[in-house]
Design brief:
CATH topology of the largest domain: Trna Endonuclease, Chain: A, domain 1
Largest sheet: 4 strands, mixed
Number of domains: 2
Strand order of the largest sheet: 5-8-9-10
Number of helices: 6
CATH class of the largest domain: Alpha Beta
Distance between the termini: 34 Å
Number of strands: 12
Helix content: 25-40%
Shape: elongated
Order of helices and strands: EEEEHEEEEEHEHHEHHE
CATH architecture of the largest domain: 3-Layer(aba) Sandwich
Oligomer: single chain
């Protein structure tokens, strides 16, 4: 069974990015190692199979330029936020197969739901509804945080309680539905120059569909900045400096 989000349109061929495959420890005695998908593959395991009865959620990612497959509606919401977030340069679902030593000395395997590159910092993310977070999940989370931190890699458990405020969710959807067009270099210079001197989205053309699509694209790319904690409208101030509000999870 497969669920699709509402059609968001086609991705521009110039936009897609690929998540860098950061290296893990190579020693067989390391307390944690991980394996990326084989060359030419984007997931360590494919969620869609003939005759599968579980629900699979899918959407066409603007950022990645391909179909993203998720196992729950919550994973889908998180992935859509990552897709729209200007401070997330890339992400991937079902990214690696981890093998790590548990506190009692046994070895365990784990496939995190997502890998994310945020402000250049790598992070693995596990997404679960609160009802599914048991002692085993909490112990695994603490163990992986401890093992990955010395490597400069984050690990985060996300539940529905961690989703951002409704305004940020609405902004993500607004950006994704508008921003599926590329912007010419000339138009980019014009947008950037006007934003540099201080302007609102309305002054830059937010109420004109063609201009709104260009502005949304540049916000998602991080070329211009807005406060994503408040609903985007014609009065939203635009700047050319990067700031914390670019993170949709703030």
């Amino acid at each position: 069974m497969t669920f699709f989000t509402s059609d968001l349109g086609s991705c521009s061929p110039g936009f897609p990015v690929v998540l860098p495959r950061w290296r893990g420890p190579t020693s067989p005695n390391a307390p944690i190692t991980w394996q990326w998908p084989a060359d030419g593959k984007v997931r360590i395991r494919n969620l869609v199979s003939r005759g599968a009865m579980r629900a699979i959620y899918r959407f066409t990612s603007l950022k990645l330029g391909r179909i993203v497959q998720l196992e729950s509606s919550l994973e889908e919401q998180v992935a859509l936020l990552l897709d729209a977030c200007p401070t997330v340069s890339a992400y991937a679902e079902q990214p690696v197969l981890m093998e790590f030593i548990t506190p009692d000395g046994s070895r365990s395997r784990h496939v995190p739901d997502l890998a994310v590159l945020h402000h250049g910092v790598p992070m693995f993310v596990e997404v679960k509804f609160s009802r599914d977070v048991d002692l085993e999940v909490l112990q695994r989370t603490r163990r992986l945080i401890d093992l990955l931190a010395p490597l400069g890699i984050g690990y985060r458990l996300v539940t529905e309680a961690d989703l951002p405020a409704p305004a940020r969710l609405d902004n993500a959807w607004s950006l994704l539905t508008r921003g599926r067009v590329d912007v010419s270099p000339t138009q980019l210079v014009l947008i950037h120059e006007r934003a540099r001197h201080g302007a609102t989205l309305g002054e830059l053309g937010w109420k004109q569909p063609s201009l709104a699509r260009q502005l949304a694209r540049k916000i998602m790319e991080g070329r211009i900045s807005v406060d994503l904690s408040c609903p985007l409208d014609a009065n939203t101030l635009v700047s050319t400096s990067r700031h914390a509000e670019g993170w949709l999870w703030a």
